[in-house]
Amino acid sequence: MSLLVQTARCIALAFTLCVVAATAQERPTPLPPTDLAGLRWTNAYFPGTTYRVAVPTGDSLLGFPIGHRAANSVEIEKCIKAWVAAAPDRTRLVEYARTHENRPLHYVVVTAPRNLARLDDIQNSTARLGDPRTISDEEAKRIIDTLTPVAWLGYTIHGDETEGSDAALAVLYHLIAADDPGVSKLLEEVVVIIDPLQNPDGRDRFLKMIAESRGTTPNVDDQSLQHTGYAPWGRGNHYFFDLNRDSLFGVHPETRGRMKEVSRWNPVLVVDAHGMGGQDTHLFSPPREPINVHVPPSRERWSKLFAREQAAAFDRYGLVYYHGEWNEDWYPGYTDNWPAFRGSVGILYEQARIAEDGVRRPEGRILSYRESVFHHVVSSIANLATVQANGKPLLENFYSIRKGACAADGPYARRTFAVLPTANRARLEKFLKLTQLHGFEVFQSGNEFTATSATDQLGRELKDQKHPAGTILIPARQPLGHLVAATLDFDPRISPRALEEERQEILRNGQSRIYDTTAWNLTMMFGLPALSLPIGLPDSAKPYALTERAERGVISPVGSPVGYAIDGADDLSVTAAARLMERRVQVRAAEKAFEFDGQKFARGSVVITRLDNRGFASDLRQAIDAVTRELGVRAIAIRSGLGEGDLPDLGGEHFKRLEPPRIALLSRSGSNIYDVGEIWFFLDHDLGIRHARVSVESEADLSRYNVVILPERSGGPLPGSWTNRLKDWVKAGGTLIAMGNAATQLGDQKAEFSKVRALPDVLNKLGDYELAVFREWLAREGELPAADAVWAHKAAPGLKYPWQSVEGTHAEEKELKKRDAWLKLFMPQGSLLATRMDAKHWLTFGCEEPLPVLAFRDPVLMAAEGVEVPVRLGYLTKAASPLAAPAKPEKSDPPDTAKKEKPEPPRVGWSALPAGTEMHLRMSGLLWPEATHRLANSAYVTRESLGRGQIILFATGPAFRAATLGPARLMLNAMIYGPGFGAAQPIRP
Ligand SMILES: [Zn+2]
């Protein structure tokens, strides 16, 4: 037993012992732990270094040596503040953001006094270098000759991969305190920025789990609670989001703060230090394929150089490591990948993760926490040395990446993304704010303009189309062109080699090699119609600056209006409705578009009538004004409730009274924490209304709620007792919203709950489901029978049934099962798919076809009789030729007079396409043809009545990373409008 371990354990237990000592005469002493040789790894991180006495040691600040155990966020803050205070000649401390739990996020700049005195100059010069349009090559060279490169090292973005932060402390102390010519020279030649803890909320949550699981003896079994923690673990932030995916969407303060600072500093190196399985070794960049097509090609060369020197450092200590293997860089939102598109070299570290003490490995060796921390120290110091030795070439690399993106003959010269004008201002503003965060130059067309060609989000070529004035334009030809293209390219393709390997892996092992989603296009994620134009910026384009909305609050030329209306095309209308109801205002939502006083309103618009609110305790107008003002939307006062022409009148059935939602979000005990966190985030941040997160471990009284949200399950099905209670509660008038695999659980035949089924359970009834597809389409687009037939006096034989348009019946169930198992192998890893929707359904308020949705390896929802399908996978258009798909005969073929009969429409998977249509499914990302045949025509959202209540099912979690804003609108509609629209509400005495 090392003295170190024993000391810390005593400290850890001191509090308990004191309490015991105060209450009992005899003080129990823990029995001394048996000695474990591997825990004795007490090597110095930097042997032989002399440190300045003015800088307090980690021991003196923490009460234990750095890396002896994981320091929490308060301890880390204490260290860095003390060091910065003691070494103002080498350091600057910057608090760059606060977490959701109000913990500060810091970085420390460590560099020589000479650099410290000109940090602004370094930032400005790097920024100039970053915009090659404004400088000549000679000027760039002059800047590079005197510029000090910046290296950014970030640690522990996943809170339970704790080693990183302790390594950051070790590296920080060394750089700040070392009285060493080598360190002084490094600091002369590099500005080092260290962010020791990128996810303090997650880390502290995890360390609390570790502390409460700690016993009297060191623990080296990585299966024990002391190493694993428990749900929701510490990986995610407060809302359980994976911050190492958030650089694309910038949802969280931790990410937004970091993105702004990385943009300000333009570091040549960005390190992101993680942890992986405790039995693993150490991984670093470069990654393997697939690598994002917009990553600057030079990154590979640089990553290899960094890796060689990193490997050499590990070799010196006799340590082992690897690169590539599972690590790929297709998704651009990783913390180390995002900066690569901006011209940095991004590097990932992954170290065998030990929560504390150590982990025993199969060979018997114990890897101690401190030694594990040391691996990150070795990597960090090696990478800093590479930057030091290659400062100028790295700055030249940065300049040439930016220059290439701006070049008139470069890959991005003729590529502009156009986001079309929309009435959904909230959605567009969210998108524009995100482009600002990324640092994109955004323009707007002043006039209508024509582009000879354009590609839409379905991959269709449009010729000579006119694009309206007000179109948002983002040219890829700009300094951040690589990032613009990486985030907005509709359809980046994985290399043929990587694709081949992916398919082989699926066939061999039944799993994907791709580590994250294969699609993320920002306009599709946000559900904003956009085009890709093969042109530079049109002449009429002007720089676009996002401004505050001019009109907010109640807009009223009317003295005493009959009511007020908020346009439903805007996502914030749902928020307004929710917040007004929370203030006890009576609110309605319009099922149809309407027009009052010459003002047009979209369906889903929110209406507040004076009559409904006669009982409202305070000034109605003031309440509406306050709510709409804080959201930045407008409420228009209505003089008359008479609809224009056939449009609805205010007193008719189309203005449904909403029932205030009382929402419970089921959590814990096997709930998928990501899905829980995402829905919770929307409730808090997009609606800002009160709700309860209810534990499935409890027997909560459901009668307090009229909306229950059941997120996806990651730990087995919902307990049967809950299923039964939920069923009774729905029958009594509840609106149950269930996601993904939780949805199919309700559709289990035995549960007798939902009528929706998972695909393999209905392979013997595919005809019924196919008929539902036909009926739905005919109800929407079907042609009338000929007038002669309708008005004929004689009954005529020879009626044609919709299913007779399909050749042949479905195969035998046994064959279908075999096929389905085969197709299931190829289910997507996150692809953006096009849908069609019922534009008369209240769930689709504020949505437009072809609403993009993300599809994963989730269950496939099947809905027929008695179930509404407001959104179905597969966007249908009229076929270009009168027939759906058959290939046209080759021109050389002689005319075949024998084949006069119309070829029948073929089936896509289990359903034929309605006659005369063609289906668009894949929008972006990898979707194997096999998966197309499984997913096409399946339900994305369903709604059905049960008793006085209703069940709404989503095929996949609709709030993915708080970025799938189209599906999220469906979810918000379900939560806020559900009790009013789909469920019967009692009139309370
Ligand atoms: Zn990680």
Provide a brief overview of the structure.
The chain is α+β, with helices and mostly antiparallel strands and 989 residues long. The structure holds zinc ion.
Question: What does this 3D model show about the protein?
Answer:
α22 links the parallel β29 and β30 (735-739). The chain is globular. It has an 8-stranded mixed beta sheet, with helices on both faces. The protein has a 7-stranded mixed beta sheet with strand order 1-2-4-3-5-9-6, with helices on both faces. Strands 15-14-17-12-16-13-18 form a 7-stranded antiparallel beta sheet, covered by helices on one side. The chain contains 28 helices and 43 strands. The longest helix has 21 residues, at 3-23. The chain is an alpha+beta fold and 989 residues long. The N and C termini lie far apart (72 Å). Helix content is 33%, strand content 19%.
